[in-house]
Amino acid sequence: FSSALFAVCVVIALVVMYDAAGVRRAAGQQAKILNKLVDKWGKEDIAETGKKLKELLGHTPVEVFAGAVLGALIAVVRHM
Length: 80
Hints:
This protein is mainly α. The protein has two helices and no strands.
């Protein structure tokens, strides 16, 4: 816990968890709304882009927390 490498790894892990639960999740929610708008009002053919936007981006806060706990448990067991 006292090494600089541990501190760097914790900061990187927090950034990744923030991205997974925040930014990516918001992008997934926006994609879902945009796909509904295109389906309902879109006069443009979806074939121009090739496919619908990917809606399953990011994780819920519970999933991120569970992943952090699982990762910590695996690290402790592996260290033993």
